[in-house]
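call fold target=Amino acid transporter
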Amino acid sequence: MKKNQISLFSGVMLALSSLIGSGWLFGAGSAAQIAGPSSIISWIIGAVIMVLIAFNYVELGTMFPESGGMSRFAEYSHGQLLGFISAWANWVSLITLIPIEAVACVQYMSSWPWSWANWTRGFFHNGTITNEGLWAVYLFMFIFSLINFGSVKLLTRFTSFIAIFKLVIPSLTIIFLILAGFHSSNFGNNLTSFMPNGTRGVFQAVTISGIILSYDAFQTVINLAGEIENPHKNIFRGVWISLSITAIIYVLLEIAFIGAVEPSMLAKTGWHGINFSSPFADIAILLGLTWLSILLYLDAFVSPFGTGVTFVATSARTLMAMTKSGNVPAFLGKVNKKYKTPRYAMIWDLVLAMALVFFFRNWSELATVVSVSTFVAYATGPVAAVSLRKMRPNFKRPFKSSHLKWVAPLSFVLTGLVIYWAMWPTTIEVIFVVLLGLPIYFYYQFKKENVNFAKQFKASLWLLAFLVFISIISYLGSSTFGGNNTFKYPWDFIIVILASVGFYVWGIKSSYENRDLEDAAKVNESVEIED
């Protein structure tokens, strides 16, 4: 193994360190409030959506094993404008994840039950980080970045240790909550009690309770592809192993949470009234599991910390990859000669992440930005994968499945639905943030010569039109998802599904021969395929 390369085990640990973050601490309680016992289905739906989306990116990642690769795939198939929009959207989501995890650390610190921790009480008030707490958030973010300043070996050792801890605590929580107080009656005795808010509640929970956010970090393996040992094998293995383990843990955690709630509490308030500030820790205390509550309060610090460290690495490599197209300042792509880490990109990400949390001090607000911006980027993955099969069938593809012909359109449709589930006006707000990057793109494009804007715009028009469509249908959709109820549920879903199929076909037809395909060919030449 080459120096500074990441083994399969370390890659899985990196992914798990990202996947099992603040989402598991907040998600189960939030999802149960929205969907009741049927929130179990929400977690399964979220996992299926991410597996289908990952399917496209595993093919692309093994074709082009380069650091920050997810910011380049759309560029290879549709030119630099679409590539920039996709990369910018993905980068926005990644740098937002850094303050999210720092906020989670500080929020749980503020609720520590020990008398010696009274000094943390002022960090959080009425659902928002205070000015005092903001300095603690900044300190955590600085430490996240500092750990990444060292070698990849240091990063993988740290995250491997954290990931093991993060696997043990949720597993103990599942086992002991079920053993100490499991009430099967909480799951209902008919469809109405199992699904108190109907199918709409199930879909709402997928996006707004942090479920999608909790599964999003599979891309850690893709974005570190240039530093993974045997990428032609280990990208595929790393993604599936980490997603499978995470899905099992999250579903079991939801089952344990639902079964552990005291039936008398449900009788008084229903699921919508079950609102714990620290869901699993509070339930552990009610069940007399004091030792478990202490571990949970500790993990509420460790889990987000480990995830924050990993996303500093991922976001920096995504920004570094964007410099290859010449659409952001070149110095951000410089790599430290000794440790092979993109320190300038890390510093820039830290500054912008600090600015984000200054204006958005609420975990759920930051989580919403992540979910929508991520799926704007994911919309290009299925289109790029199928387009490149048509444009370059001779490219080496270590992972090539005949199922892509149906997985790609299905995952694109699901992407449209997830953005829609984020609810108006969140949809238009985040889409606006994504499009704010265009002036930077145009500035660097005007500095170049022989830039064919007409072709770039034509190849990107399908995505721009798709975002306009989603914004409009979000406003006109059912009131359940924040709209004015012009199109009632489930007709709003049907419209999104049918229109998404049309945009998918348009996107594939918009691919064209561009200069970046030459770069793609050079990267693909390094791929090894074993017989």
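return ok
Residues 79 and 514 are 6 Å apart (CA to CA). The mean pLDDT is 85.
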